[in-house]
Design goal:
Length: 210
Amino acid sequence: MHVGYILAKAGGGDILPTQRQALRDAGCGKVVEDLGSGGRCDQTELRRLADELIPGDVVVVPQLRCLGQSLPDVVRLMGRITTAGAGFRSLAEAIDTTAPAGQAAAELISSLAAFGRTIDRDRIGKGLVAARGEGRLGGRRPKLTPQQQAAVADEVLSGRRSAAHMARLYDVSEATVSRLLAARRWASGSPSWACRGRARPTPPRAWSSA
């Protein structure tokens, strides 16, 4: 069975009748739709359609971008369709995986997606190297500024406030406050190891941004 799928955009209702008719003209006995509203769409109906496919079905879309918001998304959905033993057609791009030329186009799209992921990894790697060269570390930005970290440590170590109180005040976990205190104690020196002539212990892991 040929099944049509449309990813409708909010405010784009004027083209929906045209797309529906194009899918019917392509032999679709059933058309399902998802509504996107600016950001990413969950595409619940598309996922349900992919789960219900059986060998011999053909998914038809007005244009390739109906399958996802990025090239990897498109490739992932095309893979699910192929795994189910179904075919795929995109009317705008004239892709038809039930024909030899269409299979070649699908393989090209998959190769381009893999190339894009490689480029992204290289770009991220170069960015991290440049950041380390400038004395910056990658990863999430800490939720507490250096001034806030100092305030938390001073309040708790002085006994004026509890760790739980400061965690609630700055909306961080108590584990974060504990790591902060451990780092502060290590930086100031601990009599428990210095007085016994033992080697200075390894510094605690930096507190997380959680």
